[in-house]
Amino acid sequence: MFLKTVYPMKEPFDDLETLAKEAGLSQVSPNFLVQVMDSVRKEEAIKTNEIQPYTPLLTAKKWIAIGVITFFIILVAIITEVGSNETTINFISMTKIKNMMFLFSLPDFVPYQTTVYSISFLILYFSIQVPVLKRRFDREFTANTSLK
Amino acid sequence: MDHQSDQYHIDAILAGDIDAYAILIERYQNFIYTLVIRMVRNHEIAEEIAQDTFIKAYLSLAGFEGKSKFSSWLYTIAYRKSLDYLKAKKRQATPVDIDSDLTAHIIEDVKNAFQLLEDKERKEIIKNAILKLSEMEASLITLFYFEEKDIKEISSITGMSPSNIKVKLHRSRKKLYTLLKSYHVSENRIPNERAI
Lengths: 148, 196
Description:
The structure holds two protein chains of two kinds.
Chain A: H1 2-6, H2 10-14, H3 16-21, H4 32-48, H5 60-82, H6 94-104, H7 113-146
Chain B: H1 6-14, H2 20-40, H3 43-59, H4 70-89, H5 104-115, H6 119-131, H7 135-146, H8 151-158, H9 162-195
């Protein structure tokens, strides 16, 4: 009613349909379907191969358990090492510590120069490779996730 | 030709059959592309937006609740993507003045004259006339006449109120007739010029 009052010429304009339909639909390029399906498959592949959140090989609980066990082993070893002629209170003396440190010290070992150089180069190699690989992985994964 | 419903294919896709999506793309690709090209007026960009529309629809398919038609849902995505592009480009169509002398007699005259033209020529003229409308008007005319969407569906696609759409559609029709009339006038002039 409103339109009829405001626009008295409504009826003839309504007859535009036949004329307007004459223009028909525009056609997409022949490879349109293939391109869309390719993109859809890529998206699907990304979706199924989503980056899994990092889960450490040993969980915090396992580390705590390992820590507790190690502590008790060391404790038992120390107590048995202390011997019967010393009290358990003063067993933590400098001499005992020095003796214990001896357990961890290596026997006299003079490495070859070649070995030293090899180890140095290996350290250098890893110190360069690790940041480079990290940057590359970061970049790739960021690119993949930004597609979503 | 596949006559299964859209929902049938959607269920198949959600069950893991990606290839079922190709049927839906084939079914709607030209409709979506027509709407987009009439808004962005560039073939490459229109294809890109149409592709993005289908990809976005695929990724959001699980969220499609079926409250509206699948086609309307696709049009909504395509319409919004086209609008985003136009906003980014800040594109403005050349305004078309509505001919105040557009009487029912002239309209009939225009229609008759167009019926006498060759099919191909007529199609081209109408296409060009639609492209001279503003992006909004062209999209409304396309949705209303080509995609045969009713006012309620167009309202859900464009986010405009039904009364606003009715008013805009009326103005778009008037503008289109004005444009077609100008073609009709120039068409009439050509045979006379040739005769001279």
